[in-house]
Inverse folding.
């Protein structure tokens, strides 16, 4: 569906709103009090997602941030060390919550395309010592936002799984956009489920829900995460209205995400032909495109403003970095409009 009447909004997949059938499902949802444990629609969503990934249990969360933070807090004790990749969302963009919520001792490792080299992981495991923190968790991200929606290969995740089992260190996967990777690779969800102890998945991005994420893991672990959710004020009562929306999104929007990925690649092709702009990621795997401004006289905020005058919204994330994200409300006509606008803006200067 194209946003023909308004601007073509490429800023983020979080700008998406529910489709008419998702709204209808919300209005007619059967609900209860989820904190008392009797909301049937939340239960159905939790059971469906846990089964999809071959995990025992799941807990519905208000946001990806709460889901990630509860995930970590349920894995570790305060003062234990967690390994994170340097440009990961959980480390860079969650307000320092790893220190505040879980009391994590955070060790930052360099990676590329969302992958921390296995050698680096091997060297990062602390020996048992009274003087050192215990290495208690590894966090990875699928797809990796700041690697431009990069798909972290399942072969790499399987090798990490072996490392994790060898050292008894659990793996948490921030799978906010794992959906976009799955539709692209066709790898069954269960295979993604098999490479992590816990996975957080978002409904409020490409899946168009207004609110919601979910955390999966084993039964005892999810009960601990449910308790952390309660500490954080994330018990939501009649959240079946939101779960109903997510259940429809899984049927209606999930299979369509493949179109978002291919439209993003088409936009990447447009950038390739424009002097003064450069694709700032290795490949365009899914729905996120970072563009570096190499032009001498233009910077990213200037291009963002000029595109806005042409009815195209992108996000300047620094003086030289622009971001475009495709989603349900970016159709082929919007990509054409962005291509025309980019041509006009870049050729005018
Ligand atoms: C990779 C990733 N993880 C987690 C989050 C946090 O999700 P939320 O905005 O629902 O807190 C985001 C949000 O953009 C994200 O991109």
């Amino acid at each position: 569906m194209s946003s023909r009447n308004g601007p073509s909004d490429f800023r983020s997949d979080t700008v998406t709103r529910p489709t008419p059938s998702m709204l209808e499902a919300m209005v007619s949802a059967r609900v209860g009090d989820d904190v008392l444990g009797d909301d049937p629609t939340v239960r159905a969503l939790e059971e469906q997602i846990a089964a999809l990934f071959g995990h025992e249990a799941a807990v519905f969360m208000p946001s990806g941030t709460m889901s990630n933070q509860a995930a970590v807090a349920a894995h570790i004790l305060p003062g234990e060390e967690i390994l994170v990749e340097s440009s990961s969302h959980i480390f860079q963009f969650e307000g320092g919550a790893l220190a505040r919520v879980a009391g994590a001792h955070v060790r930052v490792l360099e990676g590329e395309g969302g992958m921390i080299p296995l050698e680096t992981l091997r060297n990062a495991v602390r020996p048992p010592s009274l003087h050192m923190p215990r290495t208690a968790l590894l966090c990875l991200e699928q797809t990796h936002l700041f690697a431009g929606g990069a798909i972290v290969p399942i072969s790499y995740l399987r090798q990490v799984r072996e490392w994790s089992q060898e050292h008894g260190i659990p793996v948490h996967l921030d799978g906010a956009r794992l959906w976009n990777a799955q539709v692209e690779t066709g790898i069954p969800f269960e295979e993604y489920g098999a490479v992590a102890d816990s996975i957080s998945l978002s409904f409020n991005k490409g899946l168009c829900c207004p609110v919601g994420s979910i955390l999966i893991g084993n039964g005892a672990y999810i009960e601990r995460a449910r308790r952390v959710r309660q500490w954080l004020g994330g018990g939501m009562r009649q959240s079946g209205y939101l779960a109903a929306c997510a259940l429809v999104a899984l049927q209606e929007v999930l299979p369509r995400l493949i179109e978002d990925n291919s439209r993003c690649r088409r936009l990447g092709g447009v950038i390739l032909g424009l002097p003064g702009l450069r694709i700032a990621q290795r490949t365009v795997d899914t729905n996120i495109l970072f563009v570096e401004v190499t032009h001498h006289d233009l910077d990213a905020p200037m291009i963002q403003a000029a595109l806005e005058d042409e009815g195209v919204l992108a996000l300047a994330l620094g003086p030289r970095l622009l971001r475009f994200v495709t989603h349900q409300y970016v159709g082929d006509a919007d990509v054409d409009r962005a291509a025309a606008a980019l041509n006009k803006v870049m050729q005018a200067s």
